[in-house]
Amino acid sequence: MKEYYPPLGCRDALRLDFNENTLACSPKVREVLGRISAGDLTRYPEREPVEAIVAQYLGLDAAELALTNGVDEAIHVLFEAFLEEGDELLLPVPTYTMYEVYASATAARVVPVLAGDDLRFPFEQLLAAITPKTKIIAIANPNSPSGTVATREQLLEIARRAPHTVVLVDEAYFHFYGETILDQVGKIPNLIVSRTFSKAYGLAGLRIGLLAGPVELMRWIRRVLSPYSVNSVALACLPAAIEDETYLNWYAGEVKAARAEFEVALDAAGVHRWASSANFILTRIGPRHAEFVRQMSAAGVLVRDRSSDPGIDGCVRITIGTREQMLQAATALNETLAALRA
Ligand SMILES: Cc1ncc(COP(=O)(O)O)c(C=O)c1O
Q1: Is the CB–ligand 1 distance for residue 90 below 6 Å?
Q2: What is the pLDDT of residue 67?
Q3: Three-class SS state of 201
Q4: Ligand 1 atom index nearest CA of 196
Q5: How do residues 57-73 score in pLDDT, each as one tens digit?
Q6: pLDDT grade, residue 6 (50/70/90)?
C-alpha cells in the first residue's frame, strides 16, 4: 500500500484546490458550536439519535443509514467489509483518488475503466468489464476530477446487470447537481449511496459523511464501522446543518452562478474545459501545468494539478467558490496565462 499525503501545506490563500465550501458553514451551526461546553466533550459520542434525524430528513429508515467520519471513512469501511482476495473493484477513471487508496489496503484487484477524451461516463465499457469476480463498482456522481455525470438510467442498469456486486454511488457533489438516486435505496438490493457534509455544507473540518443502503448490507458495514468515529461536536452540529436549507440552497446557488460566469472566463481565455455538474471545473492547461499551478498560487489562488490522473495529462482542477472569489480567480488566471504565453 502506497502512502498518501494530500497536498495541503500552507493554504493561506483562496482555496480552490480541495473542492471545499470556500466561505463558511451555516450560521446556525456556528450557534451550536458556541453552546458546546467543556463538560459535553467528556462524553463518548452517541450517534444513533442523530442517525435517526438524518434518516428521517432523507426519507430513509434509521437502519438504512450510517453516519461516518467523512465519506472517506465510508469508502474505507465499505471496502473493508466487502473486498477480499480474488475480488475485483471496478472503477471508472479518472476518479476520486481515495477509492484506489483504500482498495490497496485490501487484497482485491482494482479494475480501472478509462473514460474517453470527452471524459463522459464510460457506461458501455463498464458494463463490459463486469465479471463474476466484480464485488464493488464505485461511481462518483458527479465524478471528480471531471465533473461529468452518469445518468439515473445508467446507474440503474449497472445495478441490474451486476446483482452480485455492491454498487456505490458517491453523491459527494449532489447539491451542485440536483439529481440523486437516494430514493432507490432499500428498493435496489445492491445499491449504496454516500453523501458528505464536507462540500456544500462547509463542514469538511468536522468530518461527517454517510452511507445509505439496504438493511442487509448496512448490517455488514456496521460490523466494521467504529462506534465512535463520528465525534460529538460533529453530531451536535449536524441537525442544525440539515435544518438550515436556506443557507445550503443559497450557497449551492451562488456556486452554480459563479460556475457559469467562470466558464465564460475560461472560454474567453481559450482554456479547454469540461462541462461540470459539481463545484469545480477541470481544465486542460497543457505541458506547463505545474508552472501554472505555482504561478496561480503566487497570485494567491490555490488550484489542483491533476495531471498525473489517468487520461488527463496537463489538466488542472479549479474549485468554484462565490462569484466574487471567482472574479479574483479569473484575474489571476488571465495574468498567469499571459505570463506563461509571453
Ligand atoms: C467523490 C468524492 N467522494 C468523497 C470525498 C471525501 O469526502 P469527505 O470529506 O466526506 O471524506 C471527496 C472529496 O474530495 C470526493 O471528491
Answers
A1: no
A2: 98
A3: coil
A4: 10
A5: 999 999 999 999 999 99
A6: confident
Residue 50, CA atoms < 13 Å, CB-side half-sphere: 24
Cβ of 106 less than 6 Å from ligand 1: no
Planar angle of CA 7, 10, 12, nearest 5 degrees: 125
- Rounded Cα distance between 243 and 28, Å, is 9
Measured distance CA(213)–CA(64) in Å, rounded: 5
pLDDT digits (tens, 9 = 90+) for 270-304: 999 999 999 999 999 999 999 999 999 999 999 99
Distance CA 213, CA 184 (A): 9
Helices (H) and strands (E) in the chain, counts: 11, 13
Secondary structure class of 249 (helix, strand, coil): helix
Report the predicted TM-score, pTM, of the whole model to 2 decimal places.
Answer: 0.97
Q: If you search the block for the grid coordinates 441537525, which residue do you land on?
A: 239
Closest residue to atom 7 of ligand 1, CA basis: 71
Q: Are 152 and 181 in contact, with CB atoms under 8 Å apart?
A: yes
**Residue 196 C-alpha to ligand 1 middle, in angstroms?**
7
Testing ligand 1's pocket by substitution, the residue of 4, 71, 102, 149 carrying the most ligand atoms inside 8 A of its CB is 71
